[in-house]
Amino acid sequence: MASTSDIRKGLCIRYNHDIFKIVEFLHVKPGKGPAFVRTKLKSVTTGKVIDNTFSAGHKIDDVRVETRSYQFLYAEGTTYHFMNTDDYNQITLEESSLDAPGLLKEGEVVTILFNTEDSLPLSVDMPASVILEVTYTEPGVKGNTATNATKPAKVETGAEVNVPLFINEGDKIKVDTEKGSYMERVKE
C-alpha cells in the first residue's frame, strides 16, 4: 500500500475495481483546510480518462509493474503489433492502450508496462519525443512572421502537427509525444 505522497506520473494504481495509470497530478496545499492531490487517471482497460482528488495521506493500492522494450512493427485497424527487442516475441495491443498512436512510426522502440501478477500489458510509454518527416504542408507566406505564426503540417504517420511557417515538405521535425506539439527542426 502506498500513500498520496508516492503519487507520480506513470504510476499504476487499483481504483474502483479497475487499474488506472496516473497521467497528471498536482499537490495542493490551500491556505485553509487539509492538503489534497488532484489527479488525472487513465483506465488501462478502456482508455477513459477521469479526474479524481485524493485527500493527503490517503492510502492507494499501487500495482507492481515491469517494463520491457518493444519495437513497433505495424498497425492493423485498431490493433497494433509489437516485438520484444530481447527475445523477439510478438504481442498485439489495442489502440486505447497507447497514449499517442498518431505519432508512432514503424520501427520505433517503446516501453510497455506489464502487471507483474498476471503478466498482462497495461500501457505503452512513448519516448519523450519522436523525429518525423513532414509529408505535406502549405508553403509559408514571406513576411508573415510578426507573431509566432503556425500552420498545420501532415507528418509521415498521418498525424497533423502545427509547425512554424519556415517548415517545408521533406523537413524532419522533432515532436513532443506528450502534447503532440512541434519542438524543433532536425538537421541531417
From TrEMBL:
InterPro entries: Elong-fact-P_C, NA-bd_OB-fold, Rib_uL2_dom2, Transl_elong_fac_P/YeiP, Transl_elong_KOW-like, Transl_elong_P/YeiP_cen, Transl_elong_P/YeiP_CS, Transl_elongation_fac_P. Residues 67-122 form the Translation elongation factor P/YeiP central domain. SMART domains: EFP, Elong-fact-P_C. Keywords: Cytoplasm, Elongation factor, Protein biosynthesis. Signal peptide: none annotated. It is found in: Cytoplasm. Pathway: Protein biosynthesis; polypeptide chain elongation. Coiled coil: none annotated. GO terms for cellular component: cytosol. It holds the Pfam family Elong-fact-P_C. The keyword Transmembrane does not apply. Residues 130-185 form the Elongation factor P C-terminal domain. SUPFAM superfamilies: Nucleic acid-binding proteins, Translation proteins SH3-like domain. GO terms for molecular function: translation elongation factor activity. One of its GO terms (biological process) is peptide biosynthetic process. Belongs to the elongation factor P family. Involved in peptide bond synthesis. Stimulates efficient translation and peptide-bond synthesis on native or reconstituted 70S ribosomes in vitro. Probably functions indirectly by altering the affinity of the ribosome for aminoacyl-tRNA, thus increasing their reactivity as acceptors for peptidyl transferase. This is Elongation factor P. The lineage of its organism: Bacteria, Pseudomonadati, Bacteroidota, Flavobacteriia, Flavobacteriales.
